[in-house]
Amino acid sequence: MGALRYSINVTVDGCCDHRAGLADDELHEYSAEIIDRADALLFGRVVYGMMEEAWRLPASGELPEWMDPSMAEFARAIDAKRKYVVSSTLEAPDWNAELVQGDLVESVRRLKDEYENGLYVGGVTLPLALADAGLIDEYEFIVHPRIAGHGPTPFKGLSAYVDLTLVSSLKFASGATAMRFVPKR
Fold first, then answer.
1. Short-list 157, 133, 130, 114, CA closest to 5
2. pLDDT, tens digit (0-9, with 9 covering 90-100), for 18-43
3. Cα dihedral sign for 98, 47, 10, 142?
C-alpha cells in the first residue's frame, strides 16, 4: 500500500497563499523531486485548476519564455503525473486526470492500495477532509521566512488534534525549511 503524503508551502504565520511564498530554483527542484517520487497526485478542484493553469505544458512541447530551467523541471514533473480530482462541479478534467467518484474515504483508500509509491496531495479543503479521516500518512510543511498577515491556513476546522513526529528537515539557501512529519499512531 502506498502512502498519502501532504505537502504545502506556508509562511511563518501559516499562510498558504501560493503568492506569499519565496519560490526559487532550489525550491522548484526540490518540489519536482518530491512529485517524481509519487505515482499520482490528488487534488481538489481549486488546486487542480491553479496547477493546470500554471504548469500544464503546451501541446507543442515548447516551454513558455518566462519559464526558467528549474520551473521547466517542475512543470515536466507535474505535467507527466496521473492526477485525480475531487470535485462535484468539474465535469471532465483533461490534464492526464480523472474525477474521484463515490465515497471520498473509500476512493482514497483504493488509490493508496493501487499505487506502490503513493500519492501527493496539496491544498487546504481536501487535505482537511483527508486528515479528519486519518488518511494522510506524511505531512510536509515547507516554511518560508516571511510573515504574510493574511490568507488561508491549512487544517482550519480540524475535528481533532493530529500529533506528529518529525522525521526529517531540510533547510534551503532562501531560509525556507522543509519539515516532514508522520502521525503518531
1. 130
2. 888 888 889 999 999 999 999 999 99
3. positive
The closest of 111, 125, 161, 158 to 8, measured between CA atoms, is 125
> Residue 163 is which amino acid?
D
pTM over 0.90: yes
34-65 burial by CB neighbour count: b if 16+ within 10 A, else e?
bbeebebbbbbbebbbebbeebebeeeeeeee
Q: Distance of alpha carbon 171 from its chain centroid, rounded?
A: 19
φ/ψ region of 102 (left if φ > 0, alpha if ψ in -120 to 50, else beta) reads: left
For residue 90 the three cell numbers come to 468539474
At a CB cut-off of 8 Å and minimum separation 6, what does 151 contact? 11, 15, 16, 17, 20
